[in-house]
Design brief:
mainly alpha; 134 residues
């Protein structure tokens, strides 16, 4: 329990140093990785045991620096990219569906135009796939 409280105190001190732009043990970026390095705790400890402090750090970054944390900015860009990809995919799907409907309608028209008493197509309309005599 004492180690847990010591980690939390180190994380809070590291937050203050990073936000004051006075890092001692990290590159000074406003990320969870830099916060963990600055506090001297394992990154996964920050992510799992002290997730509330990580969120507090990001809230302070937004409030005190008036900027979006790097991770959040990266995720926002990815969301925009994925939304565009989804939109493009839906557009392509709609075009494919439209083409398939047109082909089905064309086939139905051709079937209905065929005279009922005609069993074979007109030889003048048939194009052989293999040359004759082969």
């Amino acid at each position: 329990m004492n180690q847990h409280m010591d980690e939390r105190a180190r994380i809070r001190e590291a937050m203050d140093r990073l936000l004051a732009d006075k890092p001692t043990c990290s590159n000074g970026s406003l990320t969870a990785v830099a916060l963990a390095a600055e506090a001297g705790v394992h990154r996964m400890a920050l992510q799992k045991r002290h997730a509330d402090l990580k969120e507090e750090f990001y809230a302070r970054v937004r409030a005190e620096t008036h900027q979006t944390p790097e991770v959040e900015a990266r995720l926002r860009k990815e969301v925009v990219r994925l939304k565009q990809a989804l939109k493009d995919s839906r557009t392509a799907e709609a075009k494919s569906r439209h083409r398939a409907e047109q082909v089905a309608l064309a086939a139905a028209v051709l079937i209905l135009r065929k005279p009922a008493d005609e069993d074979q197509p007109d030889p003048g309309n048939v194009v052989p796939l293999r040359p004759s005599g082969a």
